[in-house]
Amino acid sequence: MTSLNVLVTGGSSASGVAVARALALAGHRVFTVGSDRGRITAAAEEAGDGVTPLVCDLASLDAVRELADEVRASAGPVDGVIHLVGGWRGATGIEDQPDEDWDVLSTGAVTTLRNVSRVFYRDLADSPAGRLAIVSSTAVSAPTAAAATYAAAKAAAEAWTFAVADGFRQEQSGATADPVEQHSAAVVFVVKALLDAGMRQAHPERKFPGYTDVEELAAAAVGLFKQPAAEVNGQRIPLVP
Questions:
Q1: Three-state SS at 141
Q2: For residues 88, 93, 94 and 97, what is the CA-based torsion angle, rounded to 10 degrees?
Q3: Fewer CB within 10 Å of terminal CB in the chain, N or C?
Q4: CB atoms within 10 A of CB 166
């Protein structure tokens, strides 16, 4: 596979480290992004060679534009964005869903995605292997009262991603004049929850049923660039064991 420029947002997390490492080992040039310089630098070092740490407030459109300028200046246009920014907040029911939780989750799941996808949209649409992927939750299709805010934010992120997928389709295979083979895709990976080695070590007595190991997510991210864009564009891809 040709080496691609891939941006991993939310790169300080365990999933960010796993995805960045897997992409680098597959031969891609990886830029891992976080909001804290110390954490993202440590995460990039853990991910290994070929991973460059960058600091950005993804909730700021201007900051994301500066990030894009920095990446393009050093490596050229971006071919892939694996968006791992999110978070979790829960309550006991509908009435006690606080506005603070909505602010946090909508910013993490939706605002950052809107900024990143708008700024890098042209790069991904023009790339011969453009890919945008987010991680969503099974809660979207079966929301509970306790997780209403979380499920709503994830649903909004999915809707935005599918709109990006439609944009790719309209420009490429679905173009009314001079359609071309689909080469860009936006997808949603669906998990119940993510699991990493640190969680297993902290709770050796737990079985974590239905959880998806971050290494499985990483493999799916690498494999996404090998799958035909027309087959995956606009799809929810389940990663639940």
A1: coil
A2: -40
A3: N
A4: 14
